[in-house]
Structure to design on (505 residues):
C-alpha cells in the first residue's frame, strides 16, 4: 500500500486542505534564498530551466537540467517531482509547527486532470480550465476557511507583459485565469499517446509511429531536442504549456508557475496508466537509460544523484487516486507525427523571410524544383511511392502566443479564417511553441520543428473529391482564439515560422 495518494485537483473544493497547504508551502518556499537555498521556490524552478540572464552568470549546482525531446523526459521529471513533493511536505510541517496548527503529514502533490471532461459542450467549469485555487488572487488565512483573505501564492495574473519585463512580472497568458478551457479537448487528451506501444524509437529517419516516451537519445540528456518529442510530450504536454502560456509557455520559467507541478503530476500519471495497458508496453531496459544520473535536492537541501533505476524504485511510495479518469479512454483526433529528417523537397513556402502567424494564416506552397514528382504533385496531388511528409520549421515567438496552432492541408479558400476543428478533413497536426521562444537558451535557436505524414490525408481528400486543383496551400490556425484586446494591443506576441515544406523520402 502506497504511503501517499496523489489526488485529482479538478475534483476538489477550491480550498481543499491539499490545495490550501500547497499554497502555504509555495509562499514559504518563495521566502527562501533563490540562489543559496536549494529548497527555495526559484532555486527549484531553476533546476528545470534558468532565464537567459542567469544562464552563464552566477549559476548554481543542479540548475538548467530538464531534458525534453528524449527518453529521459519522463524519468527526469518523475524524480524532479518526487523530491519537490518531499520539500513541500516538510515546508507544510514547518508552517504548522510555527503556527501551532495541525497539517496533514501525508500531503501529496495533486494532479491537474485536464482530460477528465469529454469534448463537446462545456459545463460551467471544465477540467481544462485552471483549477479555481490557481485563478483567485486571494485565499483564506486559515485552513478551515476563516480569517482574512490573504494573497494567494498559487495565483499569477493573466496579463500581456512587455517582452523586456517577461521575467520581472509573474504572469500567464491573457484570459487564462477564466473558467474557460486553456486548450480544447483534442489538445489536452493523452488518447493518441496511449495508443503507442513503444516507449522510445531510435532517433533517425522518420518513422510512422513515434513513441510514447520520446526518442532514444542514448546517454545524452538533451535540454531541448527538437527532433525527439514523442506523442505524449507534444500532446498533451507541450499543448498545456502553450495553453497556459506566460511563464508556463517557456521551458526556462514554467516551473515558477505553481500549476507546472500539477501538470507534470498528470503527465507522470499517464506513465503507469500506459504501462498497465499491456500489449507490449514496457520501460526500456537499456543500460544507458537505467544508469543515467540526475541531480536533485532533498528537503534538507542535500544534493543527491539518483539514477533512472533508483528514481523508479525510490519514487514508489505514492499512488494516483485514479489511473482511469482522464487517461485517454475518450477518443481524440490523432496527428500522424513523425521525427523530422532530411528528405527530398517537393514544394515549399517562400523562404525569404519569417512568416508571421499573428492570426489564422494561409501559406501558399511553390515548386522547389522541376522534378516530375513535384510537377505531378502540384498538377493533381499525385502521391509519390514513398509518401508525403509535411514539415513546419523555424517555429518561434518572442513571448508565448498563448495557444498551439493547428495545421490544415489545402483547405478551401477562406477556411483558415474560420474556426478549424481537429476532426476537419483537412487537419494534419499541431505546431507547439513550448521551448521555442527567443528568451529560451540551450541552442534551440533554430526554433521548433514538427513533421507529419500526410500520405493518407492527400489520398482521402482525393477519394472524396475534396482535393482542390491549383496552388497548394497550408493553413495555420490558432487552436484557441487569441483575445482581440491582446492581438490589437502593444504587447501582442509575435509568433513566426521560417518555412513549410512537403517532402518525400
Ligand atoms: Cu513540462
Amino acid at each position: 500500500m502506497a504511503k501517499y495518494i496523489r489526488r485529482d485537483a479538478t475534483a476538489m473544493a477550491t480550498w481543499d486542505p491539499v490545495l490550501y497547504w500547497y499554497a502555504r508551502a509555495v509562499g514559504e518556499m518563495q521566502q527562501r534564498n533563490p540562489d543559496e537555498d536549494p529548497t527555495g521556490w526559484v532555486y527549484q524552478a531553476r533546476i528545470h530551466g534558468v532565464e537567459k540572464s542567469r544562464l552563464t552568470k552566477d549559476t548554481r549546482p543542479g540548475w538548467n537540467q530538464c531534458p525534453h525531446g528524449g527518453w529521459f523526459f519522463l524519468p527526469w521529471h518523475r524524480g524532479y517531482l518526487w523530491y519537490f513533493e518531499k520539500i513541500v511536505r516538510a515546508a507544510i510541517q514547518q508552517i504548522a509547527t510555527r503556527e501551532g496548527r495541525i497539517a496533514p503529514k501525508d500531503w501529496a502533490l495533486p494532479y491537474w486532470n485536464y482530460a477528465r471532461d469529454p469534448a463537446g459542450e462545456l459545463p460551467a467549469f471544465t477540467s481544462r480550465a485552471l483549477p479555481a485555487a490557481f485563478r483567485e488572487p486571494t485565499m483564506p488565512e486559515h485552513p478551515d476557511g476563516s480569517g482574512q483573505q490573504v494573497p494567494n501564492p498559487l495565483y499569477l495574473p493573466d496579463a500581456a507583459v512587455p517582452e523586456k519585463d517577461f521575467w520581472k512580472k509573474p504572469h500567464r497568458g491573457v484570459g487564462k485565469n477564466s473558467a474557460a478551457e486553456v486548450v480544447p479537448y483534442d489538445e489536452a487528451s493523452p488518447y493518441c499517446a496511449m495508443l503507442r506501444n513503444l516507449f522510445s524509437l531510435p532517433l533517425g529517419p522518420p518513422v510512422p509511429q513515434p513513441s510514447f516516451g520520446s526518442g532514444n537519445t542514448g546517454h545524452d540528456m538533451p535540454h531541448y531536442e527538437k527532433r525527439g518529442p514523442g506523442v505524449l510530450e507534444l500532446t498533451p504536454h507541450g499543448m498545456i504549456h502553450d495553453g497556459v502560456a506566460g511563464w508556463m509557455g517557456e521551458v526556462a520559467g514554467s516551473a515558477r508557475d505553481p500549476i507546472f507541478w500539477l501538470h507534470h503530476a498528470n503527465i507522470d500519471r499517464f506513465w503507469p496508466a500506459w504501462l498497465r495497458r499491456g500489449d507490449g508496453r514496457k520501460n526500456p531496459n537499456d543500460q544507458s537509460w537505467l544508469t543515467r544520473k540526475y541531480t536533485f535536492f532533498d528537503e534538507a537541501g542535500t544534493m543527491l544523484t539518483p539514477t533512472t533505476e533508483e528514481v523508479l524504485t525510490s519514487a514508489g511510495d505514492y499512488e494516483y487516486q485514479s489511473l482511469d479518469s482522464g487517461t485517454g479512454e475518450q477518443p481524440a483526433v490523432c496527428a500522424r507525427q513523425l521525427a523530422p529528417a532530411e528528405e527530398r523537397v517537393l514544394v515549399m513556402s517562400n523562404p525569404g523571410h519569417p512568416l508571421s502567424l499573428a492570426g489564422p494564416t494561409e501559406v501558399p506552397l511553390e515548386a522547389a524544383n522541376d522534378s516530375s514528382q513535384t510537377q505531378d504533385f502540384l498538377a493533381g496531388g499525385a502521391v509519390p511511392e514513398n509518401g508525403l511528409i509535411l514539415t513546419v520549421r523555424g517555429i518561434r515567438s518572442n513571448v508565448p502566443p498563448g495557444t498551439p496552432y493547428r495545421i490544415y492541408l489545402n483547405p478551401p479558400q477562406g477556411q483558415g479564417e474560420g474556426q478549424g476543428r481537429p476532426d476537419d478533413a483537412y487537419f494534419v497536426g499541431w505546431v507547439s511553441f513550448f521551448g521555442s521562444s527567443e528568451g529560451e537558451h540551450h541552442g534551440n535557436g533554430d526554433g521548433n520543428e514538427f513533421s507529419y505524414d500526410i500520405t493518407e490525408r492527400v489520398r482521402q481528400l482525393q477519394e472524396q473529391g475534396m482535393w482542390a486543383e491549383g496552388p497548394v496551400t497550408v493553413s495555420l490556425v490558432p487552436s484557441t482564439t487569441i483575445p482581440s484586446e491582446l492581438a490589437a494591443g502593444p504587447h501582442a506576441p509575435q509568433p513566426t515560422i521560417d518555412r513549410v515544406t512537403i517532402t518525400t523520402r
In short: The first helix runs from residue 17 to 30.
